[in-house]
Specification:
The structure is a single chain. This protein is α/β, with parallel strands linked by helices. The protein folds into two domains: 4-72 and 366-409, Roll (Urease, subunit C, domain 1), CATH 2.30.40; 75-361, TIM Barrel. Helix content is 39%, strand content 20%. An eight-stranded parallel beta sheet has the order 6-7-8-9-10-11-12-13. Strands 1, 2, 3, 4, 5, 14 and 15 form a seven-stranded mixed beta sheet that branches. Helix 5 (122-138) packs across helix 6, helix 7 (192-209) packs parallel to helix 8 and helix 9 runs parallel beside helix 10. It starts with a strand and ends with a helix. Bound molecules: N-(iminomethyl)-L-glutamic acid and fe (iii) ion. It comes from Parachlamydia acanthamoebae (strain UV7). It is an enzyme of class 3 (hydrolase).
Length: 410
């Protein structure tokens, strides 16, 4: 990618500019520029508009020689990309009737991946993540949140957060790190509260000082951390200056209400939440992130995204890519499949994986194609945007462009 370029023509460019930040969206509201071009300077958008007008400028042109539809690069706002090993054996057990919780109670589940991730070196983790980032870029994802949480000791969690940092420096995709050391209690500790006390005192200050992450996550549920434990831990994290998010209401209610109480940026999962919980999230401006990949992986119903939208919430969709509950790691496919069942309009689905997902990460420079924003863009080989979700993930992008790319190529 050169320093300055006019890219086009796009048969259609879905800029997502000016769309409502909350609630339902109809496809008529999609801002579409026909026969469009994008003027990019040093990885940022200077201008979007009709290609014929843009090409008159004395700027190099990168011509797209096929029918193309462009949209903002996809944003995956919730993943656990940094792990080693496989849990295909557990998946087979679940297909034979075992539950996710019963596998975890026997020492499998998250702790299974923890054992394998502790054994992996930083270099091995970087190489595994690089492969996963390559697959994300091929699917059009240009920003991906990545959680720690498969180390659960000071050293191993720092190794994971460093591995995310190293991968971020090497990759064209932007990675947003989140510290999820409060994923589950490791066997080295007798109680949840002793463990949380330990990480709040010893790990969080290092994460903050070394700028390894500015977001803290916790798994709030019956099998993980209780509301009381989570409140205490998250309050400490907030005092240190972290943004908060939570794995909330996946199997039992309570987590989303806590996220609202503490002013978290997002509350993720929400399969078990109710209209009362959504009202609290809406009032506290917490972004609800639903994770169809976890429903597909566990064979459980989706979070009720349609009803949340109808209640006025700004629903975002993420893949939850992880080795246990969501091994697929394909955001657009999952959003398309969930959209078919939940009856999400195409505008709602695209919003959920672009600008509404950016809100879930509190990122204000992406998710929309407009001047001043990052030139993160995904280009599909088709002449009508509806072909993209119609193909339910089978239509792959022809090109994915990122703001980081021009710097790395330079
Ligand atoms: O988002 N719910 C907790 N954490 C992950 C699963 C992690 C795992 O099973 O390894 C999730 O589903
Ligand atoms: Fe998750």
């Amino acid at each position: 990618m050169v320093e300055e370029v006019i890219l086009g023509p796009f048969k259609q460019l879905l800029t997502m500019e000016g769309m409502r930040s909350c609630g339902p969206l109809s496809d008529h509201e999609l801002p579409i520029i026909q026969n469009a071009g994008i003027h990019i300077h040093q990885g940022y958008i200077q201008h979007v508009g009709p290609f014929d007008a843009l090409r008159k400028k004395t700027i190099p042109i990168q011509e797209i020689e096929y029918s193309a539809v462009g949209l903002p690069g996809l944003i995956d706002a919730h993943t656990h990309l940094c792990w080693a090993g496989s849990r295909a054996n557990e998946y087979a057990l679940r297909l034979s009737g075992a539950s996710y919780q019963s596998i975890a109670e026997k020492g499998g589940g998250i702790l299974n991946t923890v054992r394998m991730t502790r054994q992996a070196s930083l270099e091995e983790l970087v190489s595994l993540m690089e492969k996963r980032c390559g697959s994300l870029l091929n699917q059009g994802v240009t920003t991906c949140e990545v959680k720690s949480g498969y180390g659960l000791t000071l050293e191993d969690e720092l190794k994971i957060l460093h591995a995310i940092q190293v991968t971020r420096e090497k990759q064209k995709i932007d990675l947003i790190p989140t510290c999820l050391t409060a994923h589950t209690k490791p066997p080295e500790f007798d109680t949840n509260s002793l463990y949380l006390e330990y990480i709040a005192t010893h790990l969080l200050p290092i994460v903050r000082a070394k700028k390894l992450a500015n977001r803290i996550d916790i798994f709030v549920d019956k099998e993980a951390f209780s509301l009381k434990e989570a409140r205490n831990y998250l309050q400490k994290a907030k005092e240190i200056g972290f943004q908060l998010t939570a794995h909330a209401d996946q199997f039992s209610r309570g987590g989303s209400s806590l996220a609202a109480e503490l002013g978290a940026v997002s509350a993720d999962h929400l399969e078990a939440s109710t209209a009362e919980d959504w009202e609290q999230l809406k009032n506290a401006k917490v972004i609800p992130v639903v994770l169809p990949g976890a429903s597909l992986g566990l064979g459980i119903p989706y979070a009720p995204a349609r009803r949340m939208l109808d209640q006025g919430l700004p629903v975002a969709i993420a893949s939850d890519w992880n080795p246990g509950s969501a091994p697929m790691g394909y955001l657009l496919l999952q959003a398309a499949i969930m959209g078919a069942t939940e009856k999400l309009t195409m505008a709602e689905t695209f919003a959920a994986i672009t600008f509404r997902a950016a809100k879930a990460l509190r990122l204000e420079d992406r998710g929309i194609l407009k001047p001043g924003f990052r030139a993160d863009c995904v280009i599909y080989p088709c002449d009508d945007y509806r072909e993209i979700l119609y193909a339910q993930g089978a239509l792959l992008p022809k090109m994915t462009l990122t703001a980081k790319q021009w710097k790395m190529d330079a």
